[in-house]
């Protein structure tokens, strides 16, 4: 018996644990201070009424023999028609034509962004942006893949572009990015698509934050770019779009046009999912199907608008202070440069002690995150305003 | 770019597709006949009222800011306390003491029975019963593992016992078994536990059907056997216990005592799940937490009793006919020998044409399934009675 020894190469991440520990210690030492967390990575607004109503109806369906639902309708995509139709209509509004068979319903993009690797050889080289959501890195370490990085920095506004001298088989792109909030234009993504097609590589495009995009020049789906169906898998999520972090629903698009090694990746993924997955809750799916209805979109847009306004409060503050940042406009994340050449953790301590505001040190997202700091828009408007007033008072001195 | 070429070694399974196609063809040719399906592998009774009520409450929680739930409570096990406590109490009633940290909440046992392999080296040899649930085989083919079989047959009543001359690192056991319905006694399982501990192997024990067991000599959990915490991972599901096939909830037990290659498998699995999974729906978990309450157990026991009575109708019929079978008493599955030395598919056709009853050919579950046939108890009582009367009339001639 041998364990998967690649697991021993994983580094323990103490990022959020240390943030939590330092915050708790400060609170214990200063019980009179009101500490505000601009570090929240989870949504805080409740589900939209249209989603709630659809879920109640679905629960009632499960209570009666005539309407009870067992295993999902199809062992490959597992999607109920109501959900698949609403996803197709949402894509159509973005100018993207897909077919039902291209779409796989899952319990969330995080599962799929690791599980999708099952269909690829462990011999492949993976290209991952730095900084980025740490799971991309860890899931590939677990599989023993060779990893190279696309270097993001202030110089390229945290939007690295492809380099033909770098050979890669699998390319992760997250746009709008976590943690930097930076979002690619369609023209920039076209360069990535062309690079992937030249290399015979596959792009894993994480579109979890696409609903925050508010500029037609920026991509909301990689399939808005010509040639993407021949090289890209798109990972989508209801988590940030509709507050589903605790409900768990996502969808992954593997176009039938995507062929590698003579094999249809759509068929390989269908086989993977039918063998190692058994679908997403009927109740969850009915809730998700309500998201892209007229009523649902109106309600979730209001929620996204609330978070977007918080982001604007933060970026307005940084604009006044003349601090470099990315994100915030098309993302719930604002990625600011630490003032006075502080390291990420130095600024964390400085902000906690002097403004009683908690953020997330950028160095936790990769080596290029050092000297940067992530603020999020998922708090309340009142807290966000107060935190920014304190930051202004502290850094505007 | 290379795909995972192990996928090309997978055989397409046409079992259920062919059953469906032949049934549809017969129906089209004989619209006047009432065809009864004793091939249903899915539950058909609705969710218990206690579960429905808990789910409605949970949906309401998601509608209000004060009670809204985002990401699950813990990035390793993802279980809410109410659910973990109810699982611990259910184990306690079986005489098994576990701790919360041993239990991982998932979206179902099928996901975990494949995903758990991530923590083991692809070099390991896997021992799989034949016949058995085909996913065990396929997930290991995908990972390129060497596979050997524990041969089940009429001779050992489809309960193969360990053989010390066979070297294995990972051992799948499903008890009560799908498709044979055969269930190990605690004494028989002890032999497997001792074998695994001698070999330094890990048992993956699929307990999905444990709630059908109605005899204290038979195991409901492998942890009822001494030494199991040192070698066994138990995969549990609400699917058949509480009709959750369309709701998706399971739990996997990895005791802290389980060490292989110097590593805690509990910690490896925690790392796998925190990296490649993001928890199970809060609504689902609250529904599941209601299953093992006093009210919930009473209601699901009534449902299980209904299915068990159907199984008895089938086994009584086979007893009268003097046909060898396993299962049915502690399982929703009855595994019968095809009469007259027919092959599985010959008997399928014979039964469909002459009794208008549909079952599942045993040969679809492995080479040792040839000449056997699976009937299930998940239909209605009326249909089960009528189907058995027809079988009696046909085979009792």
What does this structure look like?
The structure is a homodimer of 397-residue chains. By secondary structure, chain A is α/β, with parallel strands linked by helices. Chain A has two domains: 5-46 and 295-395, Aspartate Aminotransferase, domain 1 (Alpha-Beta Complex); 49-294, Aspartate Aminotransferase, domain 2, CATH 3.40.640.10. In chain A, 38% of the residues lie in helices and 15% in strands. The first copy, chain A, has twelve helices and 15 strands. Chain A has helices at residues 15-29, 49-61, 81-93, 109-115, 135-142, 186-199, 239-242, 265-276, 282-289, 294-321, 344-355, 381-395, and strands spanning 36-37, 103-106, 125-130, 146-151, 170-174, 202-206, 232-237, 250-253, 259-260, 263-264, 325-327, 333-337, 357-358, 360-361, 372-376. The first copy, chain A, has a seven-stranded mixed β-sheet, with helices on both faces. Chain A has a four-stranded antiparallel β-sheet with strand order 11-12-15-14. In chain A, strands 1-13 form a two-stranded parallel sheet. In chain A, a hairpin with a 2-residue loop joins strand 9 and strand 10 (263-264). In chain A, helix 10 (294-321) runs parallel beside helix 12 (381-395). The mean pLDDT of chain A is 96.
